[in-house]
Write a structure and sequence with these properties.
Lambda Exonuclease, Chain A; alpha+beta; single chain; 4 domains
Length: 382
């Protein structure tokens, strides 16, 4: 199996989206943000490509303008605002990063790191925007970001993407590892004109490999079981796969399925109104939940939409751990006294600090305690 960092991140965020995008290969239109980022990346590649003459600022801006597509935006104002932002990004970047000041080793170079998981060798692949050789002999991996927000320095130092890019770099240039030469990894935030960097030691890279292998094993397990559950998250509202997702399927319904759809929407609107008076209307809400659950079960849906909002049905699982097994695992590691009474929050913290083999045993000690489905309400703004 060949996967990118983006694929791993997608699986962590939502296994069902991973299935749609990387297994079923369902194509969706690129977002305007992604198209904007792609054009900026292409323009910076044009700036740094080796040649007899370094492009002038005017030539770079012309390349950007010639490849700009106003049809990606819903209004002339939106297109104009984004175009102006792109011009500002490129002007600021050119002023701070004149190409002659850098020793660039590679641009948009591909890599593949072999990792063994679930008894098979998989390739963790990707493409690095830029690799420089600094004045003090370091290799620096640079990834351009057009995001609005900048993370903290601590987040950059623990970022999985940069760690994977580090692994990709030493796999591409083996002499770096043989000579024990450090590699610098950096995010360049173009809208801010700021670069945040970090260094990884051998121990941190080993942890990165462990985490990637564990994620690959989860993907292999999901593929064998053919089980990819939707995982609601803050990016759901921008997901291109809503039409296929049980949490959004009802939003795109085009025909009646078993129930009269207008009746369901009317009932749904009444449910959302009654949610404000849940204390007095407990009995009525319970009846409605039964109707919705029947409809969802028969229609294989997990979210119902109406003009006023939507409700989501979510499977809630509570686990408990066998204390005797946990003691056998944690006591030799000196961690048993830190939990004494098994507490999920404390256990999760301790699990991050023990070896991967112990983490695996902790997972084996986990048993399903109980599960149930809950409803949540989100009202549309009026």
């Amino acid at each position: 199996m060949r996967l990118s960092y983006s694929a791993l991140a997608t699986f962590q965020r939502c296994p069902l989206k991973f299935k749609f995008e990387y297994i079923e290969r369902i194509r969706t239109p690129k977002s305007k943000e992604a198209l904007f980022g792609t054009l900026i990346h292409s323009t910076l590649k044009k700036l740094h490509e080796p040649g007899l003459l370094i492009p002038t600022e005017e030539e770079i801006l012309k390349f950007f303008a010639d490849n700009w597509d106003q049809k990606n935006y819903t209004s002339e104002l939106e297109a104009s605002t984004n175009f102006s932002q792109g011009v500002k990004i490129l002007k600021d970047y050119y002023a701070k990063n004149y190409p002659a000041n850098f020793n660039i080793v590679a641009l948009e170079t591909s890599f593949a790191v072999p990792l063994k998981a679930a008894g098979e060798t998989h390739l963790l692949a990707g493409k690095i925007d830029r690799v420089d050789k600094t004045s003090d002999g370091l290799f620096e991996v640079i990834d351009y970001k057009t995001a609005k927000k900048m993370p903290s320095q601590q987040a950059v130092e623990n970022d999985l993407q940069l760690a994977i890019y580090h692994l990709g770099t030493i796999n591409q240039w083996p002499m770096l590892e043989k000579e024990n030469r450090p590699v610098k990894v950096s995010f360049y935030f173009l809208k801010h004109g700021e670069k945040l960097s970090a260094m990884r030691n051998a121990e941190q890279l080993a942890v990165t490999k462990e985490n990637a292998i564990r994620e690959l094993e989860e993907i292999v397990k999901a593929r064998k079981a053919e089980k990819f559950e939707p995982r609601p998250n803050p990016l759901c509202d921008w997901c291109g796969y809503q039409r296929y997702c049980p949490l959004f399927k009802h939003k795109f319904i085009e025909q009646k399925i078993i129930f009269n759809d207008q009746d369901i929407k009317k009932l749904l609107n009444e449910y959302i109104s009654l949610d404000d008076e849940i204390g007095q209307k407990e009995k009525r809400l319970a009846e409605m939940k039964g109707t919705f659950s029947l409809f969802m079960d028969q229609s294989q849906m997990e979210r119902l939409f109406s003009e006023d909002g939507y409700i989501t049905r979510k499977l809630i699982q509570r686990f408990k751990y066998d204390p005797d097994l946990l003691r056998q695992i944690l006591e030799p590691l000196g961690k048993w006294q830190e939990i004494l009474k098994v507490d999920d929050a404390k256990l999760k913290k301790v699990a991050k600090e023990v070896p991967a083999s112990a983490r695996a045993k902790i997972e084996e000690a986990k048993k399903l305690d109980k599960e149930y489905k809950s409803f949540s309400v989100k009202k549309e703004k009026t």
